[in-house]
Amino acid sequence: xTARTLPTLSAFTELLKPITWFPxxxxxxxxxxxxxxxxxxxxxxxxxxxxxxxxxVCATSQAVNDWxxxxxxxxxxxxxxxxxxxxxGRWGLYVAITWTILSLLVATGLGPWGFLAAALGLxxxxxxxxxxxxxxxxxxxxxxxxGLSYEGLAxxxxxxxxxxxxxxxxxxxxxxxxxxxxxxxxxxxxxxxxIEGDSRMGIRSxxxxxxxxxxxxxxxxxMAVPQVVVVLLLLQWGAPASAIAVALLIAAQAVLMRRxxxxxxxxxxxxxxxxxxxxxxxxxxxxxxLRALG
Length: 294
What we know:
This protein has about 290 residues and is an all-alpha fold. The protein has one domain: Farnesyl Diphosphate Synthase, CATH 1.10.600. The model has no long low-confidence stretch (mean pLDDT about 95). Helix content is about 80%, strand content about 0%.
């Protein structure tokens, strides 16, 4: 059988992982809403920003991660495009570099702030996976970089771009930071399936460092506490209805967290599918609260 020299279209799509694009796209949209700017006046910027956050920058981060994680994936998930051979040779690296350049080109359409934000996001994407920095080598730093990039940076960029490049107001920055911190716990959910490979390859994810049970408890606290602070801030700012809505979303998450803590390895995917949507719903509720407060 002749060895494959070109990647298949399905392998290319799988490498960019469209399912992962939602969080930064959603966070950018939250920033757009929180800005208070009428969408009809700058809808082109909003659409371009969502495109940049998901199919460009986030997709780049996935390609970069899969290239530098190919040896770990050969243990944890050998069916992935690179270790399976469906993305042969150095094509994974070529895609990562090409998508980085394309992302920067698209970012020029968002002005100086959008370009700088995209550049920072791309730097974090490469620093997360590429030696010698390889932030993912330690779960505390790697998850923080992802949370700040996927949620906070995307939110702030959405708000700033819609406001013509002006720095978002303090309340918007606070919410972006809090939801970024909470996203640290969400990132931990992705690490439970990779404990074996991470341990063998020296990647100190939180499940590897703390054990699965303790890492699940830490992830739940990290997700919950910032949201509680959001509720308190919304009450202080005079948005009680939004505060109650976020509190109810937290309560629903707490029910699912008990299931996650009881069996983290088996339930991490379940929580990602049902608990995380509750978390990001609170983000949008908070964004609309800021919009209403003016």
